[in-house]
Request: fold
Amino acid sequence: MRLVFAVLLMFSSYAFASCGNIADNDQRAYCMAKNNGQSCGNIQNSDLKAACVAEMNGGSCGNISDNDQRAYCMAKNNGQSCGNIHNSDLKATCVAEMNGGSCGNISDNDQRALCAAKRDGQSCGNIRDSDLRSQCEAQK
Reply:
């Protein structure tokens, strides 16, 4: 769930129709908040809700209880370093997104394919997780 949450934070836009294809209620609500301007209040997961508020409404990343997710939010929203992230895949995702690092350093196959699709325009077809694939296709 942590890594999926991180990937959700990576996206800056989604196609509205694709949000409906996301099975997870919180992920779907997050997508709809980002894409359709709906409230972050429909998100039950407290860290995802705090990240949504920080990203959408200029709220504080400090409300995210997970240390790695908070550091990722701060890197993304405040330009802080990815170096404070302990999870290796999340750190590699952050470095790839923020500093132009390689997606090849991400060990999770779906996350690596998502990064490559986002950065290099590669196909989303290699992503096995249907929610991530829907989000990937929405961003293209």
